[in-house]
Amino acid sequence: MGNLCGSCFKGTADASDLLTPDAETRRRQMAEAAERRQQEQSNRGIKNPESVKRMQNKSQETERLERERAMAGSGGQPNLKWTQG
């Protein structure tokens, strides 16, 4: 009864299976994992992330067009804003 698990620990695996991957492979794997975590975090709580991206792009394009119209409508001069001081 003294040697119950002795047969479990005998070396059936190669020593090459126990070696860790080289530094470049580990670095690449860590970068991929970090990118996946970042993507999951940014999409957290959003059912359709592609729809959100389309809406953001559309709003940015709308803002850009409004700025261009404002610049063109005033002869290249930005609109003046009244401030009360």
From TrEMBL:
It holds the Pfam family SVIP. Residues 23-39, 60-70 have a biased composition (Basic and acidic residues). The keyword Transcription regulation does not apply. One of its GO terms (cellular component) is endoplasmic reticulum membrane. It comes from the Eukaryota. Residues 1-85 are annotated as: Disordered. One of its GO terms (biological process) is negative regulation of VCP-NPL4-UFD1 AAA ATPase complex assembly. Keywords: Lipoprotein, Myristate, Palmitate. This is Small VCP/p97-interacting protein. It comes from Polypedilum vanderplanki.
